[in-house]
Amino acid sequence: MASIGIVQGGIEQRGGARAVRTQYAGATFESRRAYAEETCDAWVVVSPKYDIVSPEREIESYDLTHEAFGPFEEMQWVKRLQQQLRAVLFDDENPEYSRVVVLTDDYCKAALEPVYRQAENAGVTVVQPDSDAIESDETRLVTPP
Q1: pLDDT (tens digit, 9 = 90+) per residue, 73-116?
Q2: Pairing state between β 42-47 and 97-103
Q3: Are residues 86 and 46 in contact, defined by beta-carbon separation less than 8 angstroms?
Q4: How far is residue 45's CA from residue 10's CA, in Å, rounded to a whole number?
Q5: At what angle do helices 71-89 and 113-121 cross, to 10 degrees?
Q6: Among residues 53, 50, 51, 59, which one has the least CA distance to residue 23?
Q7: For residues 111 and 81, what is the distance between their CA atoms, to the nearest angstrom?
Q8: In the prediction, which pLDDT does 136 show?
Q9: Interior/surface letters 108-130, b for 16+ CB within 10 angstroms, e for the rest
């Protein structure tokens, strides 16, 4: 089976309507994106506005972070993320991937932890590479066209 990367979007954006893979402009996102592209068969992005999105999906730039959510909005957002990630990772109850690579901050990882535990219980390997190793590799800091 294949592997999938879960990449967190960033605050810095290029603006306008663009594919997710090129909308986010920060070095951390670009490092994580490059890592996912190099080591995973597929990847998705966690966005506070668009939830779980494909890198090919075109989105408008936005000015929103999860910190702006009130308690109820945050709870609803986390619930949507969990539902959507389950739909990506599982076909019915069977895992679609043998490996999940978590490329998010600790907040997003904790928000999605119930889904990661479910995946592990189904035999999926869930890993979070050391962020220093990902972000310090200059070969990963590739600016998209």
Answers
A1: 999 999 999 999 999 999 988 999 999 999 999 999 999 999 99
A2: unpaired
A3: no
A4: 10
A5: 30
A6: 59
A7: 8
A8: 52
A9: bbebbeebbebbeeeebebeeee
